[in-house]
Specification:
binds adenosine-5'-diphosphate, 5 strands, alpha/beta, globular, five-stranded parallel β-sheet, single chain, about 200 residues, 9 helices
Length: about 200
């Protein structure tokens, strides 16, 4: 492929998307993690703090200067309009940082930029911004088991997130490449990643 390959990487929670992103990074890809950027803009000193304080009030900012996550979670859970207002602050800032990181990767002659975006299929605008879409897939029970095992969320919380995400079929329909991360050891997964990596300029 001539020039840089822009690869959209997606998958449901617990599918193994971040694991595959790390493996692609080992092959030389630059990985841009949309979720990590969304969290970092709401840390102390993050670009979203001042607009959040203005839009929602000081009490949504914790003593350390970061967004008060607990208070914000309660607010947006109960109030859909507040959720939209928060997203309207965060999304453009994240988009800007994604674009800046992508430009930096192009400047350093990187051959593949991986856009690690959990909701790539759900947020339709992404398709036109990437050359290829790689979907990481596994059985729903495995998603649940993996996320509960890493002790992050309760079963109910994971099920709720899974229900809010695109269905497997919907996500797979958007895929140029799909990796079935089921019954694979990490070594086997790494082998699969190595086999498809040349399609992404790696
Ligand atoms: P996602 O980013 O899609 O939420 P992760 O890559 O974080 O998923 O993987 C979820 C969990 O499952 C992690 O703890 C990861 O180490 C584990 N995992 C991913 N793929 C495999 C696999 N093939 N075998 C065993 N564990 C896996």
């Amino acid at each position: 492929m001539l020039g840089v390959c822009r690869l959209g990487l997606t998958g449901g929670i617990g599918s193994g998307k971040s694991t595959v992103a790390q493996m692609l990074a080992l092959h030389g890809a630059t990985v841009i993690d949309a979720d990590a950027l969304a969290r970092s803009v709401t840390w102390a000193g993050g670009a979203a703090i001042a607009p959040i304080s203005l839009a929602f009030g000081h009490h949504l900012i914790a003593a350390d200067g970061a967004m008060n996550r607990v208070a914000m979670r309660e607010l947006v859970y109960a109030d859909a309009a507040a959720k939209r207002r928060l997203e309207a602050i965060i999304h453009p800032l994240v988009q800007l940082q994604i674009e800046q990181q992508a430009q930096e990767a192009v400047r350093t002659d990187c051959s593949c930029i991986v856009f690690d975006v959990p909701l790539l299929v759900e947020a339709g605008h992404w398709r036109s911004k990437v050359d290829r879409v790689l979907v990481i897939d596994c059985l729903p029970q495995t998603q649940l088991d993996r996320v509960v095992a890493r002790n992050e969320l309760s079963r109910d919380a994971v099920l709720k997130i899974m229900a809010s995400q695109a269905s497997r079929l919907h996500r797979l329909k958007a895929a140029d490449f799909a990796l079935f991360n089921q019954h694979l050891t990490f070594d086997q997964l790494h082998n699969e990643v190595s086999q498809i990596a040349p399609h992404f300029g790696l």
